[in-house]
Amino acid sequence: MLPNPTLDQLQVFLTVAETGSFSAASRALNRAQSVVSYTIANLEAQLEMPLFERSGARQPKLTESGKAMLEDARRILGDLQVMRARVKSLREGLEAEVSVAISVMVPSQAVVDVLHEFRERYPTVSLNLNVGELGMVMDLVLSGKATIGIGGAVLKPDDSMVTERIGHSFMLPVAAPNHPLAAIDRPLTLGDVREEVQLVVTDASGRTKGRDFNVLSYKTWRVSDIATKHQLIKAGLGWGGLPASIIHDDLRSGALIHLDLDAYEQGEYGIYSMRQLANPPGPAASWMIDAFRTRLSYCPNQADFHAEMAELRDTAPPLAAE
Prior knowledge:
Order of helices and strands: HHHEEHEHEHEEEHEEHEHEEHH
CATH topology of the largest domain: D-Maltodextrin-Binding Protein, domain 2
Number of domains: 3
Number of helices: 11
CATH architecture of the largest domain: 3-Layer(aba) Sandwich
Pfam families: HTH_1, LysR_substrate
Oligomer: single chain
Function: Transcriptional regulator of the ttuABCDE tartrate utilization operon.
Strand content: 15-25%
Radius of gyration: 30 Å
Shape: elongated
Keywords: DNA-binding, Transcription, Transcription regulation
Helix content: 40-55%
Domain HTH lysR-type: 5-63
InterPro entries: LysR_HTH_N (IPR000847), LysR_subst-bd (IPR005119), WH-like_DNA-bd_sf (IPR036388), WH_DNA-bd_sf (IPR036390)
C-alpha cells in the first residue's frame, strides 16, 4: 500500500526538523510532546523508513531519507499556503487572473515598473499579457479576451466600452544616420521623402482598414509589428515614425536621427484605459489602471523631449575633420 501522509503529519515533521527537537516542536505547535512523538512515529511507519536518528544523540538528527523527505514536505506545505492565500483572495473578491492588453505605444519602462509592483502586491493573481499594435488592444477587450486594455485612442466609439485617458505619447519620424534623408542639412519637405521607402505597421485587427496615418511616401514597406519596423529603420532600409519612448536611447546614442519634417504630424496623442461596461475590473485590475495612470504622469511631454534632444545635440563633441 502506498504511503498517504496527512498534511498535519508533514507539518509536525517540518516543525521538528526546523526547531531541532521534539520538545521545541511541541511548544511551537502547542501540543504535548507525546503527541508530537506519536505523530512522527506514525509518519515513519507509513513511509516505512526512519526520518530521525534517535540513538546516541540528545537531539533528533535527520537521516538521509529524512533530509530528502524534508524538501518534499516543504514543497507540499508551501503549495498549501499558496492555495490558502488564493482562496482567501477569492473570498475577498480578488481575481484569480488578470488579462491585460497593452499597446506598443505605452512606454516599455512604465510597463515593467507597473508589472513589477503588481507581482509584489498580488502574488496570488496570475497575469495574461498581450502586447500589440493599433486596434488589437480594443479587439481583445471587446472580445473578452482581455479584462482591461491600455492603449491609444478608441478608433471607433463603442457604447459597450468604458474608456478613460490616463496618459500620453507621441511619434517621431526617424532614420538611420547613413540614410539619405539624414544627410539633408535643412528642414525636409514632402518632395524629399516622397521617393524614399517609408516603413509602416499594418493593423492586423482591421479596425484601421483603408486609413493610413502619416504615410507620406509613394513607396511603402508594410510590416506586422513595431519591433520589426524599429530594426529595419535602424538598418537603414527606410524611414518612418516610432514612439518616442522606444527610440529615446537610439537618439541619445546616435543610432537614429530625428527628421525635421513638418509634414509629419507629431502631436501628442492620448493613452487610454479600456474595459467592457458589463465587466467591471476587480481589485487587482483596478489597481493596475491606477498604477499606469500614476506612472504615465511621469513621462515627458513632447516639448520636454525635444528640449532634451536639443541639449544633447548642443553638448555633443564636434566631429573630427577627415
